[in-house]
Amino acid sequence: MREPLSGRTRRVHPYQWLWEPLEVDPTLLVRPMFGGRAVYLDGKLMLYFAAKEEPWRGVLACTDRVHHVSLLAEFPVLAPHPILPKWLYLPESAGSFESAAERLVSLARRRDPRLGVDPKPKKRPRATKKRPRATKKPPARYPAPSRAASSRSRRN
User: d(Cα 140, Cα 106) in Å, to the nearest integer?
Assistant: First the structure.
């Protein structure tokens, strides 16, 4: 990764080593999300890496509920996340965290159909209806002569 130009040191995410094997993939996108890092492949949200306090310390496998049973059979250490139960959670405190996390990244790399969710499209801000400006003519510096005044001047 490129060093910032500002001279400040950039903090490395503690789980960066897990998504580094995916960096050769041209569709990889790693974005900050809720204090963690979301990993997208082919536009799908595949994995979420969180390094805060429990229950936000580990890897979340972004998947649909229909795939929970087969993923839980393959990864007994996974469990539905206590706050986001639609995704499966691999806590850092699990004894087999490193090997299970590497296997999850490997599944994502191989585009396992059980992993990945399409992100919801972003809502566009409502277009505010602008009122047309009232076009006022600027006041004349000198009042226009009235017709009566102009007709009098012709008579003289």
Answer: 77
CB 81 within 8 A of CB 58: no
Residue 86 resides in a domain:
yes
- The answer to whether the beta carbons of residues 13 and 51 sit under 8 Å apart is yes
Residue 142 lies in a domain: no
Q: How many domains does the chain have?
A: 1
47: DSSP letter: E
* Cα separation, 48 vs 29, whole angstroms: 12
115, part of any domain? no
CATH of the domain at 31: 3.90.1150
H helices within the chain, ranges in order? 16-19, 68-74, 97-109, 147-155
Q: Which two tokens stand for residue 115?
A: 């992993």
C-alpha 88 chain-centroid distance: 20
Mean pLDDT of all residues belonging to the chain: 83
Q: Can you give the residue range of the structural domain that contains 57?
A: 16-109
Residue pLDDT, tens place only, 49-91: 998 888 999 999 999 999 999 999 999 999 999 999 999 999 9
d(CA 32, CA 10): 14
